Amino acid sequence: MSSSSHDDDKALFRQTVGRVRRIRADVLRPDHRPAPPARPLQPAPPASQMIEDSLQDPPDDPDLQPGDILSYARPGTSRQTVRRLRRGQYRIDAELDLHGLGLQEARQALLCFIREQQRRRMGCVRIIHGKGWRSGNQGPVLKPGVNHWLRQLDEVLAFASARPVDGGTGAVYVLLRANPN
């Protein structure tokens, strides 16, 4: 670089920037107040307790039989969407099998599963709850629970009993809302 082009660059810089005053580090004063000291956080309730509290227990429903078809759609969900869900026309992105779990364990597993799948931006999942044939005289236990809990979750747009090849009335397809984040 020639000396004249270097001088031209310096002149152009000074013209663009204007007068510059050197700042001394020992004279700096902050323009804002320092942050207040951090307060200790209140201990959060255990995650399992938050999960327990977020979903209500299912009501006793003696009318719900092992072979009954489940179906639900939030207001505003199109008929075509529900029809496609019932026909199993959505790709199943993930599956949860609740067989062998107690009611409280199933509730925790279902809530964690639904929230994780929505966070992962999954669209349709299958939940296997079983038909309840082995529940004896009390009838299905998990099926009414799943039916009740899914209706309470904002993440759920719709659900419907699966096709026979996918578990029939012992499983549901669940369509999740798009993740807003």
TrEMBL record:
Source organism of this protein record: Acidihalobacter prosperus
Region annotation Disordered: where it falls in the sequence: 23-78
Organism superkingdom: Bacteria
Name of the protein this chain belongs to: Smr domain-containing protein
SUPFAM superfamilies associated with the record: SMR domain-like
Pfam families attached to this UniProt entry: Smr (PF01713)
Bias type Acidic residues, positions: 54-63
GO molecular function, one term: DNA endonuclease activity
Domain Smr: 96-177
Biased composition (Pro residues): 35-46
Xref: PROSITE patterns: SMR
Biased segments, Basic and acidic residues type: 23-34
